Each structure stands twice: as structure tokens, then as C-alpha cells.
Automatic annotation (TrEMBL):
<dbReference type="InterPro" id="IPR000150">
    <property type="entry name" value="Cof"/>
</dbReference>
<dbReference type="InterPro" id="IPR036412">
    <property type="entry name" value="HAD-like_sf"/>
</dbReference>
<dbReference type="GO" id="GO:0000287">
    <property type="term" value="F:magnesium ion binding"/>
</dbReference>
<dbReference type="GO" id="GO:0005829">
    <property type="term" value="C:cytosol"/>
</dbReference>
<dbReference type="InterPro" id="IPR023214">
    <property type="entry name" value="HAD_sf"/>
</dbReference>
<dbReference type="GO" id="GO:0016791">
    <property type="term" value="F:phosphatase activity"/>
</dbReference>
<protein>
    <recommendedName>
        <fullName>Cof-type HAD-IIB family hydrolase</fullName>
    </recommendedName>
</protein>
<dbReference type="Pfam" id="PF08282">
    <property type="entry name" value="Hydrolase_3"/>
</dbReference>
<dbReference type="InterPro" id="IPR006379">
    <property type="entry name" value="HAD-SF_hydro_IIB"/>
</dbReference>
Length: 271
């Protein structure tokens, strides 16, 4: 079921591009892109709609899924690094001084840091092989982190995460439960804007789908913002629609409704 939060008129003919978050949105809880969503994306592409990914992941961590539908538009590092047809459209980084301070502090507190820059990552304790951390980290010293970063993943206990987050003012940060994620100042929407400007697409012609607090701005600013059923309440409240969760075809159902693809009434709206 899709719930309409905000009573805005939406016409499928006006939408030209979709930006989809990866973790918790494109992927189900088994970290798979299911066949129904893949077919829906491909049908959209056949209709001339552009389908892009907007994520906190690196480009390497995004391409492994985007290649399944020949994606050529990536907004990565939470809007810090945007790629259109293999060309860099937007590139913002966490200042070297701040990156170094956060990595050094994490190390001194016996935590683990991962410092991402472009398509490389460095860590004081490399070895984690989780897909969203691609490219996997190389062993690093603290001095190596005195450089601009696209992303920092700081693994600390909750007390130290909270303390460290209060000291971050020049970047965006999110507490992910086991780590503090730090990105360049801005949001996914910051990375989307230069892409759509380059394509000659207006914000009203954009659909966004996400499930995290870092998706809130892109859900609010797009012509149609859709929150997944597995989103926190604050994310659902920011969206125009709320769809099913990522284990019940939420993204596919939302796209089918937004672009009138369904042959039968797969989705019921509640207004």
C-alpha cells in the first residue's frame, strides 16, 4: 500500500528521472536487488526515464548494483561525488584538517577509522569486507589521513560517537548504530542538483526514493519524494508518499504507481 502524505498533484508524464537510494531501498534485507524491481527499472528505461543511484556509498560500492541495469548516473558519498556518463559533475570533500582530527581521535580512543577519498580507502585496522565499504581499505597510518576525504566511517562506542559528533561542524554526520558516518557538507540533493542542471531537468521532474535520515532533503525537494516502509517516522513524514518496505517490493510498487506501469491495481492509495 502507498500512503499519500501530501496532497500534491502528480502526473507521471512530468517525471524524467528517478534517484534511488541503495541500502534499505534498492536492496532488500538480504542485500539483493530483486527481479521485480529490476524489471520495473528496465521498463522505465525503455520509456525514456533515467534511473540513477543516490547513496552514501562510494562509486565502487554503487557500480556493483548499478551495472545490473546499465546505470550511468551516480550520486555517491551522500552527494559529495556525482558522476554522469563517466564524467565528474560534482566533487566536494571533507577538509583534510577535519578528516585528520577525526581519524586521529578515533584511533586514540581505540576505535577503527576508514578514510575514503576518490576510489581508495585507508584504515588503521583494515580487514572488514562488507560490500558497502568498497573499495576495501588499505593499511594506513594516522599521517596518511591528513588529506581531503569523501567519507569517513568511524567505529566507536556510542558514548564516543556522541561526543565526537558534537565537534563536527564543517561536514554532515550520521550515527549508524555501530559507527559514525561523516560526509562533505551538504546532502544527496546537493549532488543531485548539478546532475539535473546538466541534463536540463527541473526539480519538479525528479522522483526520489529512500529510507534513511540522509534521504530527507532529497525526498522533500524532489517533485515526488517516496519513503520506504522501513524508514524511520521522520523520513516518512518528509515524503510525499510512503510505500511498502524493502522486503515487500516497496520501490517497485512505488515506481509502478508513479509512472502508471501496473497492468492491474497492484497498489492501493490511501488519501
Amino acid at each position: 500500500m502507498i500512503i499519500n502524505n501530501h496532497l500534491k498533484k502528480r502526473c507521471c508524464e512530468m517525471f524524467r528521472i528517478v534517484f534511488i537510494d541503495i541500502d534499505g531501498t534498492l536492496l532488500n534485507s538480504k542485500e539483493e536487488l530483486n527481479e521485480n524491481l529490476l524489471k520495473t527499472i528496465q521498463e522505465l528505461q525503455q520509456k525514456g526515464v533515467l534511473v540513477a543511484l543516490a547513496t552514501g556509498r562510494s562509486l565502487d560500492g554503487s557500480i556493483i548494483h548499478g551495472k545490473q541495469f546499465n546505470c550511468s548516473i551516480y550520486v555517491t558519498y551522500n552527494g559529495g561525488y556525482s558522476i554522469l556518463n563517466n564524467h565528474i559533475i560534482h566533487d566536494a570533500k571533507i577538509p583534510a584538517e577535519l578528516a585528520y582530527f577525526l581519524c586521529r581521535t578515533t584511533h586514540d580512543l581505540n576505535g577503527t577509522f576508514i578514510h575514503f577519498s576518490d576510489r581508495r580507502s585507508l584504515s588503521n585496522r583494515p580487514g572488514m569486507k562488507t560490500e558497502y565499504l568498497l573499495p576495501f581499505a588499505e593499511s594506513s597510518t594516522i599521517i596518511d589521513t591528513n588529506r581531503d576525504a569523501h567519507r569517513l566511517a568511524l567505529y566507536l562506542d556510542s558514548k564516543h560517537r556522541n561526543e565526537l559528533q558534537t565537534q563536527i561542524s564543517e561536514a554532515a554526520s550520521f550515527d549508524e548504530g555501530d559507527r559514525l558516518e561523516v560526509f562533505p557538507a551538504g546532502s544527496k540533493w546537493t549532488g543531485i542538483l548539478p546532475v539535473i542542471k546538466k541534463l536540463g531537468i527541473s526539480p519538479e521532474e525528479v522522483v526520489t526514493i529512500g529510507n534513511g535520515t540522509n534521504d530527507i532533503e532529497m525526498l522533500m525537494e524532489a517533485g515526488l519524494g517516496i519513503a520506504m516502509g522501513n524508514s524511520p517516522d521522520c523520513v516518512k513524514q518528509a515524503a510525499d508518499w510512503v510505500t511498502e518496505d524493502n522486503d515487500h517490493d516497496g520501490a517497485a510498487l512505488a515506481l509502478q504507481k508513479a509512472f502508471s506501469l501496473q497492468k492491474e491495481p497492484l497498489v492501493q492509495s490511501r488519501i
